[in-house]
Design brief:
heterodimer; A: 263 residues; mainly alpha; B: 282 residues; 10 strands; binds adenosine-5'-diphosphate; binds magnesium ion
Chain lengths: 263, 282
C-alpha cells in the first residue's frame, strides 16, 4: 500500500547522525555512492555494508523501516538483475530458448543488484536523518560555487525542498482520497489490469486538482511574504560545522581508502 | 439493526517512532434512527473513530458488530457494510472526479452493483434531497459553488441508500448561511428517511440544536455520551478538553449565576429568549 512508501521521509529521532551538518551528510552520501563504484571484488560490499549498518545503528532507525522503504525499488532491482543475468556474454553454463546464462552474467547480476540496493539504502539514510529544510540548505551551500556560472542554485534548492516537503502531503492526500472513494464502494484490489487502471481515475483526478490548488496556494503565500528568490537572502540558522562532522569526514576518508585498496 | 463497537483500540504507525494511540477502549452502541453528534477538539480521534464504523480502518483490538454480525469475520461482506454505513469525509468536494454531477453521484450506487435504472433513481432522489436542482444535474461538478459541490458530494453517499449516514465535519469551511443550510438538510434527511445520522463536529453550536445524543471524545477516549442538555452541565470539564458550550447556554448560565431565575439548559436562541422573558416577567 501507499502508506508503506517510507523512502525519502524524515524519521524524527535524536541521534548523532541526525545532528550532523547537512553538508556533511550530503557530501558523505556522494562519497559513499562513489566508493560503491571503486571496488571490483565482493569484499568491498563487506566494507560498505559495514559502514551502512554502522550509520543505520547510529541513526537509531529501525532496520524494518529502512527495508520497508526499499520495497518500491524491488521491481526495478529485479529487472536490472534479470537483464544482467541474461545479456552478459561469457562462459555459458545454462541455456533456455534464446537466453543463455553465463558465469559472468550471474556475477554481474549479483554485483549490480547489491550495488544498486546499497546505493538506494545509503541515499535514503540521508533523507531519513535530515529534514527537507536542512537538506536544501546543505545542497545550496555545497553547490553554491555554481552561482558564479549563473546557475540559480537557491531556486533549484527551493524547488527540491518543496518537492520533498510535498511527498508526505501528497501521500496522505492520496490515502484520504482512496478511502473516500472506497467509502463509495470503489475497489482497487480486484479485477484485471484494465479494470485496475480504470479504478485509478477516481483517485488521480482529485489528486491532480488538489495538487494544483496546493501549488497555487503556496505560490500566493510565498508572494504575500515578499519571496523573490535567493538574492540578498540571509539564513535564520546559518550552517555550522561541529566536531562530529570532522569525525564523519575522517570515517568517510577511511571508507574511500578501503574501497580503493581492497584486493 | 444496530452498530456496536466493543472495546476498540487503535494505534497509528504501530511499531515505529511515529506510533501514537488514537483510540482507547471505545465502546458504543448506535441504535436505529438516532441523530447523534460526535464532538471533540481537533486531533481527539473523531475521524479515526468513524472510519472504524465502515471498516476503512481495522481496529488493533476490540470488535465491531453490524446487526449482530462481527465485521472482522472472514466471510463478512465489507462492500455491504460500506453501502449501509455511508461515510462522508471532511471536505468531500475534494473527491469529485466525474464530468457531470449526475455521473459523479452514480459512482457509489454503480459500485454497489445496483442496476442502471435503480442507480439513476437513487441518484436523482439523493440530489433532490440535498437541494440540487435539475438544471445542475448535467453541469460539471467543478463549476459549482463550494456549498453546492459539498451537497453533490453528500448526495454521492446518500445515493447508496445507507442506513447510517456519518458526516465528518460537514460544515467545515462554510459561511454561516451554508452551515445552517447543510445542518437543516441533514435534519430533514434524518426525518424523511428515518436513517441514523452521526454528525461529527468540533463546534457545539453545530450539534446542539439538532442532535438528540452527544458523544464527547477527548484524546481518544469517550468522555460523555448523553443528551446534549446533560452534557452541557459539565461546563468546566468541557472547557478543559478544549470545547466551548453553545453561546446561548453560556449566556443563560451566567445570568443564572447573577441570580436570574432562568433555565440553565437552554440550547437555542429561541429557548433562551423565552426563558429570559419568563424570568423577568414580560
Ligand atoms: N494518517 C495518520 N497517521 C498518523 N497519525 C494520525 C493519522 N491521522 C490522524 N492521526 C493522529 O491521530 C489522532 C486523532 O486524529 P483524528 O482522528 O484525525 O482526529 P480528529 O478527526 O478528531 O481531528 C491525532 O493525534 C492525529 O495526529
Ligand atoms: Mg477529523
Amino acid at each position: 500500500m501507499l502508506r508503506d512508501l517510507t523512502i525519502g521521509q524524515y524519521y524524527p529521532v535524536e541521534s548523532p547522525i541526525h545532528r550532523l551538518d547537512p553538508r556533511t551528510k550530503f557530501l558523505g552520501t556522494i562519497i559513499y555512492v562513489v566508493s560503491l563504484f571503486l571496488f571490483k571484488s565482493f569484499w568491498g560490499f563487506l566494507l560498505t555494508g559495514g559502514f551502512l549498518v554502522m550509520v543505520t545503528v547510529l541513526a537509531r532507525i529501525p532496520p524494518k523501516y529502512v527495508i520497508k522503504g526499499m520495497r518500491p525499488m524491488l521491481f526495478l532491482l529485479l529487472f536490472m538483475m534479470i537483464f544482467n543475468l541474461l545479456l552478459t556474454p561469457g562462459e555459458v553454463i545454462g541455456e533456455w530458448w534464446i537466453f543463455s546464462v553465463t558465469k559472468e552474467g550471474i556475477y554481474a547480476a549479483l554485483f549490480m543488484g547489491l550495488r544498486l540496493a546499497m546505493l538506494v539504502l545509503g541515499s535514503s539514510l540521508m533523507t531519513y536523518t535530515t529534514t527537507p529544510n536542512k537538506l536544501t540548505a546543505g545542497m545550496e551551500s555545497v553547490f553554491g560555487f555554481l552561482k558564479i556560472f549563473k546557475v540559480p542554485v537557491h531556486e533549484l534548492a527551493m524547488m527540491i525542498s518543496i518537492a520533498l516537503r510535498f511527498i508526505p502531503i501528497l501521500l496522505e492526500e492520496t490515502n484520504k482520497i482512496m478511502k473516500a472513494q472506497q467509502a463509495r464502494g470503489a475497489d482497487f484490489e480486484t479485477g484485471g489490469p484494465i479494470k485496475r487502471a480504470k479504478a485509478l481515475i477516481p483517485i488521480l483526478i482529485p489528486l491532480f486538482i488538489s495538487s494544483f490548488r496546493r501549488a497555487g496556494e503556496l505560490a500566493e503565500a510565498m508572494e504575500a511574504r515578499c519571496y523573490h528568490g535567493g538574492e540578498g537572502r540571509t539564513k535564520m540558522k546559518p550552517l555550522k560545522y561541529h566536531i562530529g562532522d570532522l569525525v564523519a569526514y575522517i570515517v568517510l576518508a577511511g571508507l574511500v581508502a578501503g574501497c580503493i585498496f581492497i584486493p | 439493526m444496530s452498530l456496536i463497537l466493543d472495546k476498540i483500540n487503535y494505534y497509528y504507525s504501530k511499531g515505529t517512532a511515529f506510533e501514537s494511540k488514537a483510540l482507547k477502549n471505545i465502546s458504543l452502541t448506535i441504535p436505529d434512527g438516532e441523530f447523534i453528534g460526535l464532538i471533540g477538539h481537533t486531533g481527539s480521534g473523531k475521524s479515526t473513530l468513524i472510519q472504524h464504523m465502515n471498516g476503512l480502518i481495522r481496529a488493533d483490538s476490540g470488535s465491531i458488530y453490524y446487526n449482530g454480525q462481527d465485521i472482522y469475520d472472514k466471510d463478512f461482506k465489507m462492500t455491504e457494510l460500506r453501502r449501509k454505513v455511508g461515510l462522508v469525509f471532511q471536505y468531500p468536494e475534494h473527491q469529485l472526479f466525474e464530468a457531470t454531477v449526475i455521473k459523479d453521484v452514480l459512482f457509489g450506487p454503480t459500485n454497489m452493483g445496483m442496476d442502471k435504472l435503480k442507480a439513476e433513481l437513487a441518484a436523482y432522489g439523493a440530489l433532490k434531497a440535498v437541494g440540487i436542482g435539475e438544471d445542475l444535474i448535467d453541469a460539471s461538478p467543478f463549476e459549482l459553488s463550494g456549498g453546492q459541490k459539498r451537497r453533490v458530494a453528500i448526495a454521492g453517499v446518500l445515493a447508496m441508500s445507507p442506513e447510517i449516514l456519518i458526516l465528518d465535519e460537514p460544515t467545515a469551511g462554510l459561511d454561516p448561511a451554508g452551515r445552517t443550510e447543510i445542518l437543516r438538510l441533514l435534519k430533514k434527511i434524518h426525518e424523511d428517511n428515518g436513517i441514523t445520522v452521526i454528525l461529527v463536529s468540533h463546534s457545539m453550536e453545530d450539534v446542539a440544536e439538532y442532535a438528540e445524543r452527544l458523544i464527547v471524545i477527548d484524546d481518544g477516549e469517550i468522555k460523555y455520551d448523553d443528551e446534549p442538555r446533560k452534557v452541557f452541565t459539565h461546563i468546566d470539564e468541557l472547557r478543559k478538553t478544549g470545547l466551548e458550550i453553545p453561546e446561548c447556554t453560556e449566556l443563560v448560565g451566567r445570568l443564572a449565576d447573577l441570580g436570574l431565575k432562568v433555565d440553565r439548559s437552554c440550547l437555542t436562541v429561541d429557548e433562551a429568549v423565552a426563558s429570559i422573558l419568563q424570568s423577568t416577567g414580560y
